């Protein structure tokens, strides 16, 4: 949570001074910086008293904490949101059934090695959703500058040439090369959704491609600050999903798993999702993709892939299905 969002509960002048003098921009920065005395020493003289700083720090901690909810209330609320949320499909029936569909207000982690089909899957989900729901938009946060407008346009034309232009208008792409930039994008979206009183298309899907370079540099085996930053960021995504009924998909990289990944149903899986073992518990579903082989045929060639659920709140873990990709388009292998 950015401290700017707490203004005016905290004076804007103090927020600016914390940023300029201490590099404190978020609740995580403030709560893990050190003691209030350490912060006072770095601030310009007379900025804030020690007692007021401690009071503001307690306020930030209170706002950053997760409120308690009864299980039956959460279940009832999820049901109400699900009824209003647009239906979403990836176009592969077996894969939709594997995760219980992609349309509920949940946070999905899509992980796998390079070439496993992560971006192709997420892009096809977004396009299918935009084609099926004319009053919806999608926000794609590109953290590496690799988003291809040309490939996206080709995929849209493959599904519906007539509507390709209108669909692309409802796919918003934002660049965010660091965690602060992405926080800014999400805060702008939150304010927009809160203040929206029009009948214009609204954002229903968010993609972060990829989340790995945003969080991995801050993670350390000797400090908990990076993990706290990751937990804060993921909590914000879950709050956005549940408050506004959004489906959020984060693409994650991989790291080595020795001797093999015990979350997988296959002993041949020697990679695992990046960002540590706790990250998978910060999402609602972890979907692992892998490429098995390339197959030639009369039309050229296609690749065969496996999608496996490592963990899910809605469906059974360690279940899997196969699918194929031909010219960037996913389809069933049967």
Automatic annotation (TrEMBL):
Subcellular localization: Nucleus
UniProt record, GO biological process: DNA strand invasion; double-strand break repair via homologous recombination; reciprocal meiotic recombination; telomere maintenance
GO molecular function: ATP binding; ATP-dependent DNA damage sensor activity; four-way junction DNA binding; hydrolase activity; single-stranded DNA binding
Start and end residues of each RecA family profile domain: 84-255
Sorted UniProt keywords: Hydrolase, Nucleus
Presence of keyword rRNA processing: no
Main location: nucleus
Segments crossing the lipid bilayer: none
GO CC field: microtubule organizing center; Rad51B-Rad51C-Rad51D-XRCC2 complex; replication fork
Superkingdom, natural source: Eukaryota
Protein name per its UniProtKB record: P-loop containing nucleoside triphosphate hydrolase protein
């Amino acid at each position: 949570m950015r401290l700017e969002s707490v203004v005016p509960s905290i004076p804007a002048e103090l927020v600016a001074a914390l940023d300029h003098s201490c590099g404190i921009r978020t609740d995580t920065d403030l709560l893990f910086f050190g003691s209030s005395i350490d912060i006072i020493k770095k601030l310009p003289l007379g900025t804030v008293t020690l007692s007021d700083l401690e009071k503001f720090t307690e306020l930030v901690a209170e706002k950053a904490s997760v409120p308690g909810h009864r299980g039956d209330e959460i279940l009832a609320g999820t049901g109400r949101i699900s009824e209003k949320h647009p239906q979403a499909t990836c176009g592969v029936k077996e894969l939709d059934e594997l995760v219980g569909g992609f349309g509920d207000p949940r946070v999905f982690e899509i992980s796998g090695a390079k070439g496993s089909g992560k971006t192709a899957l997420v892009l096809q989900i977004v396009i299918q959703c935009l084609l099926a729901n004319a009053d919806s938009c999608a926000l794609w946060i590109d953290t590496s500058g690799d988003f291809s407008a040309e490939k996206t346009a080709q995929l849209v034309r493959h599904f519906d040439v007539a509507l390709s232009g209108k669909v692309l208008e409802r796919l918003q792409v934002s660049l965010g090369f660091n965690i602060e930039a992405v926080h800014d994008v999400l805060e702008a979206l939150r304010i927009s959704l809160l203040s929206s009183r029009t009948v214009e298309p609204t954002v229903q899907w968010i993609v972060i491609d990829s989340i790995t370079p945003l969080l991995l540099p801050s993670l350390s085996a000797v400090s908990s600050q990076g993990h706290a930053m990751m937990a804060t960021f993921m909590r914000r995504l879950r709050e956005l999903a549940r408050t506004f009924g959004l489906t959020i998909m984060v693409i994650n990289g991989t790291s080595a798993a020795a001797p093999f990944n015990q979350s997988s149903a296959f002993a041949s899986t020697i990679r695992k999702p990046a960002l540590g073992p706790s990250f998978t518990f910060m999402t609602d579903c972890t979907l692992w993709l892998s490429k098995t082989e390339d197959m030639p045929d009369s039309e050229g060639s296609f690749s065969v892939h496996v999608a496996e659920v490592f963990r899910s709140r809605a469906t059974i873990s360690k279940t899997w299905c196969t699918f194929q990709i031909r010219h960037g388009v996913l389809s069933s292998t049967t």
